[in-house]
Specification:
Structural class: alpha+beta
Number of helices: 3
Distance between the termini: 71 Å
Bound molecules: zinc ion
Helix content: 10-25%
Number of domains: 2
Length: about 170
């Protein structure tokens, strides 16, 4: 959904819509988010504050995530609230270091022209809501480094060598 920021005057504008499951298309191999399993409910308010726009939103959906340890796909509910600031810059504008700092420190997103694609903001916020490490469960046993079996499902009998192999040889010699 594209919003024309010039239409936002003194009064904040509210947007409420739902994106279908098919909306999330993952074309990045090994993407942590494999898809949605519930429509994505979006509520967004955009308010003009001086030369900037404050975007407040809330998202609600179900995510299909890939576990970092065992690579299984699992469901996780997502409910998040966010706030970002937008500032519009001319189309031919060239970014410099100072501006990157502004973006990072102040949480200001610079957008070219007067139009903003809300779906880009939503996608970014979903990624930001993810934890550093995505685990299907806290004590996920992961994959066996020898045979590759998912240790949550089937314990295998592989011997996992502890320490450096050279030390094992040394031990055997003694
Ligand atoms: Zn796992
Ligand atoms: Zn194994």
């Amino acid at each position: 959904m594209i919003v024309d920021l010039t239409e936002i005057l003194e009064k904040p504008k509210q947007y409420r819509f739902s994106l279908p499951i098919e909306w999330w298309e993952s074309d990045i191999p090994g993407d942590q988010i494999q898809g949605l399993d519930k429509p994505l409910e979006v509520r967004i308010t955009i308010e003009r504050i001086g030369s900037r726009f404050a975007v407040n939103g809330s998202l609600n959906t179900g995510l299909l995530l890939q576990c970092d340890r065992c690579l299984d796909i699992f469901h996780q509910d997502l409910t998040c609230e966010f706030q970002v600031y937008l500032e519009s810059v001319p189309d031919d504008w060239e970014p410099d270091e100072e501006v990157e700092l502004l973006e990072e420190e102040m949480g200001v997103d610079l957008i070219r022209g007067e139009e903003v694609e809300l779906e880009d903001i939503i996608r970014e916020q979903i990624y930001l809501s993810l934890p550093m490490k995505i685990l299907c469960k806290e004590d996920c046993q992961g994959l066996c480094p020898v045979c590759g079996a998912n240790r949550n499902r089937q314990p295998c009998c592989c011997q996992v060598v502890q320490g450096h192999p050279a030390f094992q040889k040394l031990k055997a010699l003694k």
